[in-house]
Amino acid sequence: MASRPWQSLVANALLFEAGWLLCVLGGSWVAAIAGSGLLAWHLWRCALPGEARFIAGFALLGLVIDGSLKRLGGFDFNDQTLVLGLLPLWLWMLWPLFATLVYHSLAWLWRYPLLAATAGAISGPLSYYGGALLAEVTLAPWLLPIQALIWAVLCVGISRVYRA
After folding, report:
1. Do 26 and 34 contact (CB within 8 A), yes or no?
2. For an engineered disulfide with 138, which of 9, 63, 65, 76 has Cβ 3.0 to 4.6 Å away?
3. Strand partners, 76
4. Residue 1, Cα to own-chain centre: how many angstroms?
5. Is the pLDDT of residue 156 over 60?
């Protein structure tokens, strides 16, 4: 894969972080507007061939994973409107936004599957914990350890696919 200027990698990471904050703090209406705008900009200006398909697949995967965890009682969103009765749009939007990092600012990570698993096991649950505090979502006690396992496996999977 061609090397990218460090400025574009930093911009990619910062745009994700801005999107994360906007989605979590702004709720579903802000997520619909800001998240869609960030995704559209990424696809227009930064995406590699086939990346749009990857982002769409990752968004669907997020709906399945977090939707299943919601059904199992892992999340309590109080009175928030849920997409397909599963997740608030702001939470679901974080999945395709994360996917914009995979081929860009996180590309270096996939060469190191053990490091990728460790990073996923730590940063995944921290993201959910921080988001839950900011968005007033209640998490079941078992959810964060399960999220650690899920994100470790996801990151190892990305590492294997990315290197293929």
Report:
1. yes
2. 76
3. 138
4. 23
5. yes
Say if residues 125 and 151 touch (Cβ distance below 8 Å).
yes
Q: How do residues 24-56 score in pLDDT, each as one tens digit? A: 999 999 999 999 999 999 999 999 999 999 999
Q: For the chain, report the end-to-end CA distance as a whole number of angstroms.
A: 12
Helices (H) and strands (E) in the chain, counts: 6, 2
- Please spell the DSSP secondary structure of 7-74, one letter per residue: HHHHHHHHHHHHHHHHHHHHHHHHIIIIIHHHHHHHHHHTPPTTHHHHHHHHHHHHHHHHHHHHHTT-
In angstroms, what CA-CA distances link 107 with 4, 20, 87? 10, 19, 28
CA distances from 78 to 50, 88, 136, 143 (A): 37, 10, 8, 17
Task: Show the tokens assigned to 66.
Answer: 């977090």
- Which tokens sit at 83? 């997409």
**Rounded mean pLDDT of 16-20?**
97
pLDDT digits (tens, 9 = 90+) for 60-105: 999 999 999 999 999 999 999 999 999 999 999 999 999 999 999 9
For residue 3, pLDDT beyond 70: no
